[in-house]
Amino acid sequence: MKDELTAVDIKKMKEEIEYRQAVLTPKFKEEVARTRALGDLSENDEYRSAKRELNRNYSRIRYLKAMIETAVVIEIEETDEDTVALFDHVTIWYEDDEEERTITIVTTLRNDVLNGLISKESPLGKALLGRRVGERIKIDVNENYSYYVEIRDLEKGADDASLSIN
């Protein structure tokens, strides 16, 4: 399955790749060289740590490039004022918890559950898209667990470039 991302997602990934290649890679290489000069590599934890950071940087660059290559760029469709769409802020009532929360529906790359950014690919995100204020919706998490929410309020959103990518 290909990830559906917005043009802003692609732009942010390209910016991160450029930053990692131009700023972080030289910095990490310099640290590897500095720690290598400290002596015996078999007992040099600083060297191993520096190599690990350089490899993490390379890994992140590879991951971002692969995401860009395989992504399907989507356009954000305008919907009715009371219909949930991508980047909208949705206030929902969780029946089981008797709690109201406001979440934002985002692309998978900007998912951050702890900060209320819910992927459109998650069970909750999928269930909410296209629904309207006042609807009660069953969220099927898996074969054994589901729960109900009610859409209480909706504020239309936009593709916010300030949201970080993960």
What does this structure look like?
The protein is an alpha/beta fold and 166 residues long. It is 37% helix and 22% strand. The chain has 2 domains: 4-73, Transcription elongation factor, GreA/GreB, N-terminal domain (Helix Hairpins, Orthogonal Bundle), CATH 1.10.287; 89-155, Transcription elongation factor, GreA/GreB, C-terminal domain (Chitinase A, domain 3), CATH 3.10.50. The protein contains 3 helices and 7 strands. The strands form 2 sheets. It has a 5-stranded mixed sheet. A two-stranded parallel ribbon has the order 1-2. The mean pLDDT is 92.
What would the keywords be for this entry?
2 domains; 166 residues; Chitinase A, domain 3; alpha/beta; Helix Hairpins; two-stranded parallel sheet
A few lines on this structure:
The chain has 166 residues and is an alpha/beta fold. It has three helices and seven strands; from the N terminus they run βααββββαββ. Helix 1 (7-36) runs antiparallel to helix 2.
Assign the CATH superfamily of the largest domain: Transcription elongation factor, GreA/GreB, N-terminal domain
Mean pLDDT: 92
Low-confidence segments, ≥5 residues, pLDDT <50?
Answer: none
CATH fold name of the largest domain: Helix Hairpins
The description of the largest β-sheet is: 5 strands, mixed
The computed structural class is: alpha/beta
What is the count of DSSP helices, taking H or I runs of 4+ residues?
3
What is the architecture of the largest domain at the second tier of CATH? Orthogonal Bundle
Say how many strands there are: 7
Secondary-structure element string: EHHEEEEHEE
The coarse silhouette is: elongated
Gyration radius, to the nearest Å?
21 Å
Q: Specify the CATH class of the largest domain.
A: Mainly Alpha
Could you give the distance between the termini?
18 Å
